[in-house]
Design goal:
This protein has a four-stranded antiparallel beta sheet with strand order 1-2-3-4, covered by helices on one side. It has a four-stranded mixed beta sheet with strand order 7-6-5-8, with helices on both faces. α1 runs antiparallel to α2. The chain is an alpha+beta fold. 42% of the residues lie in helices and 25% in strands. β3 and β4 form a beta hairpin.
């Protein structure tokens, strides 16, 4: 895909991504040490290798992830995927503070089609509030959303209301 000069390119907040990865690595080391204590060095080696593979995949995703908004498409990029959605199908946005299990509220943007279906879901945990504002502004679509935080089951019901 060729990026144009007027394309909006958003990258996740790398500091937050790397700090979460570092926290996960500390947890992985602790779990591996527990396995070594209970199961011996061979079991710890297997568990340690699995952690290395998992962290490598997450690091690749953190490094390559992003959103590209062109005149014709909304593109979500990850380490191993690229999802393209026609920008012409987007007619409405809903921005909500979604409460994730065992976490606090997270600003989330839903880009909806004419039937209320979700074309794109952008998790604010990965992007700054300024980036979310820039995306909403660049899309130039009507934006609504509930005032109070919602839970994931409530958020799917709320995104269907594009009035």
């Amino acid at each position: 895909m060729h990026q144009g000069q007027d394309d909006l390119v958003l990258r996740p907040d790398l500091r937050a991504g790397w700090s979460r990865l570092a926290l996960g690595m500390v947890s992985g080391v602790i779990v591996t040490a527990g396995v070594a204590f209970r199961g011996g060095p061979e079991a710890a080696l297997v568990v340690g290798a699995a952690w290395v593979v998992l962290f490598s995949l997450v690091a690749a995703h953190v490094h390559r992830a992003g959103i590209i908004l062109t005149a014709h498409e909304i593109v979500l990029k990850g380490a191993f995927f690229r999802r393209r959605r026609s920008r012409a199908r987007a007619v409405w946005t809903v921005r909500a503070s979604v409460v994730q299990p065992r976490q606090g509220p997270c600003d989330t943007l839903f880009v909806l089609d004419a039937h209320g279906g979700v074309l794109v879901r952008v998790y604010g945990a990965h992007y700054t509030a300024e980036d979310m504002d820039r995306l909403v502004h660049a899309l130039g679509l009507p934006c609504s959303g509930p005032e109070e935080p919602v839970t994931p089951p409530g958020s799917s019901r709320d995104t269907g209301r594009a009035s």
